[in-house]
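Practice problem: predict the structure.
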Amino acid sequence: MPVCPVLTRILREYIKAEGLKPGDLLFPGEKGGLLSGTVYRRAWSGARRKPDAA
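Answer:
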C-alpha cells in the first residue's frame, strides 16, 4: 500500500528504535499476540469518520 514518505520515515525509525526483526509485530495486541478483530473494526471505524464528526 502506498504510504507518504513522512510516515515511512516515522515507521522505519520506530522499527529501528524497537529493534524489530522480520516477522515481529509492528502493532502487537495486549498480550503480545495479534490484534483482535474488535480492535481493527474500532480503528477503521474511527479512521472513516469525518474529522469534524470525531
